[in-house]
Design a protein that fits this description.
Elements (H helix, E strand, L loop, with lengths): L1 H22 L8 H4 L3 H29 L2 H14 L1 H10 L3 H16 L21 H7 L7 E4 L3 E4 H12 L9 H21 L2 H10 L3 H20 L18
Antiparallel strand pairs: 1-2
Length: 254
Amino acid sequence: MPGMVNTALRAIFVAACLALTGCASVSTRESPEADDPLEPLNRAVLEVNFALDDALIKPAAEAYRALLPAFVRDRIRSAIDNLAEPRILVNDLLQGRVDAARITLGRFILNTFAGIGGMFDAATPEGFPRQSGDFGQTLYAWGVEDGPYVILLFFGPSNLRDAFGLGVDLYTTPPALVVSGHAGTITGAVVGTVDGLDLRSRNIETLDEIKASALDLYANLKSLTRQHRAAELRDARGTTEAPAELIDPGDNPK
């Protein structure tokens, strides 16, 4: 599976690089048909993702949660999140968010040393909450539009700008920058696999509920993920208003 994931990531990264320049000017403020021209393909990829999830990923996540106590899973989650702090720091700086970069640097130092390699969050109680910061967000801060909506194999809902940003993040996040060569590839695959399993294990019931209640799962996921991403993108432009309440497009209140 790690090899298959790595191959898919390379294909996604190359495709996004080629397509971004031609589609970066497409705005999400246009009609749904204009910003989702790949809907038939997206729906097919979503079905593949859910088939893989039902057959492999969800059972593995359930086993992971059953085998490891919550305390151990929380330490793993914290350590993996700490590995991403240098990437968040760089993107905060690229976005001109100096205060966020200061907080991220302080957080990384505190959690690495006082938090024993990031296994414990010693920073948040000291006034260093986790910041957002990824390369898709940075591109947004630089004025790059979303581009068409896409469903990525394994990774799910995104758009061309954020797909390109994901590729950059995957190749610039430790351990990829710390361990070189084949060992770095293996280490990155292991960390990425554990990261994915842990995240999936934390969302088993939530995703089951969404799947059970949505009239159109594709439209539901597109709406919810876009609203969540909009809240993250507000950080990149320095806006501080509270995010709007997430709305389920399949919900029909009486």
